[in-house]
Structure to design on (309 residues):
């Protein structure tokens, strides 16, 4: 029997019941207060965490017995991976679950901005050149929908996209800058990590044609929000759709909050009834396997070990 802490409730209560049925004790901490989570982690063996809660080195200091951390989805940027590795804590995520809902959400944000619902000054998506930076599972699904569903001209960039463009009917760019200079609707769908450190800032936004739209459903760190605000103020951008921001949430008084040309959603693009159930059970299954000493990662899909202990 192990002790599992859920930092915020799981999306589907049936997954919690599966953890209990496997013989584990489960405690839910529905608070961001450090003292609350630290008190629960004192004798915990495993932790499941949901954004925007952040597993920092200070939080891990409260968890001397912790062996496993599971994310609620794909992203791990709310976990101090280096500190977890130093403490020999195995971290697992659950990639690929948000492909359909995030792609739908991205296109919804673009269509809301293009159709300018508030002012009834609509422009059609089908006549736009769509650019996609990042052609993983989400970016490629956005491309598939835009090509087959809307008939868009789509130009894409990804470090690993060589086989995708002919299949999807998109045009491959040799660099992100080539996408920026070609597109008037830009979708950011790529990963971000410390080794890439890539940000879309003033220089990149200036390559877009005047009146372009930017949609970010990847990571907030990919987009310089000060540069976005300047481009909106200068009317170089017609609108921005953000499901992810940095920091998350934006602080009170930030100029993008309440801006008439900005549509913000609270990092919910990957959430749907169906995906929530799959994500909850993926996490529960991974924790049950890990606590039972079973293999994870490549030997046991869909569990994805970020690093072994």
């Amino acid at each position: 029997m192990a002790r599992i802490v859920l930092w915020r409730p799981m999306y589907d209560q049936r997954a919690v019941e599966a953890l209990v049925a496997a013989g584990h004790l489960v405690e839910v901490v529905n608070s961001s207060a450090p003292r609350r989570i630290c008190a629960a982690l004192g004798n915990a063996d495993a932790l499941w965490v949901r954004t925007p809660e952040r597993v920092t080195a200070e939080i891990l200091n409260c968890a001397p017995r912790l062996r496993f951390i599971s994310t609620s989805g794909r992203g791990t940027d709310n976990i101090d991976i280096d500190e977890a590795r130093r403490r020999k804590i195995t971290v697992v995520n659950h990639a690929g679950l948000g492909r359909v809902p995030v792609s739908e959400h991205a296109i919804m944000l673009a269509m809301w901005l293009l159709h300018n619902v508030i002012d009834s000054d609509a422009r059609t998506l089908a006549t736009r050149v769509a650019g996609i930076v990042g052609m993983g599972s989400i970016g490629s699904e956005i491309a598939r929908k835009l090509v087959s569903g809307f008939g868009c001209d789509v130009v894409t960039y990804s470090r690993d996209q060589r086989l995708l463009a002919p299949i999807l009917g998109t045009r491959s760019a040799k660099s992100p800058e080539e996408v920026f200079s070609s597109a008037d609707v830009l979708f950011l769908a790529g990963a971000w990590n410390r080794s890439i450190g890539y940000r879309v800032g003033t220089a990149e936004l200036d390559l877009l044609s005047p009146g372009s739209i930017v949609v970010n459903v990847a990571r907030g760190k990919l987009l310089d929000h000060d540069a976005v605000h300047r481009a909106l103020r200068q009317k170089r951008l017609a609108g921005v759709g953000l499901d992810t921001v940095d920091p998350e949430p934006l602080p009170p008084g930030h100029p993008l909050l309440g801006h008439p040309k900005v549509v913000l959603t609270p990092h919910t693009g990957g959430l749907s009834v169906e995906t929530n159930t799959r994500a909850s059970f993926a996490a529960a299954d991974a924790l049950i396997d890990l606590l039972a000493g079973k293999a994870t990662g490549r030997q046991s899909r869909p569990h994805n070990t970020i690093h072994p202990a």
In short: The first strand starts at residue 3 and ends at 7.
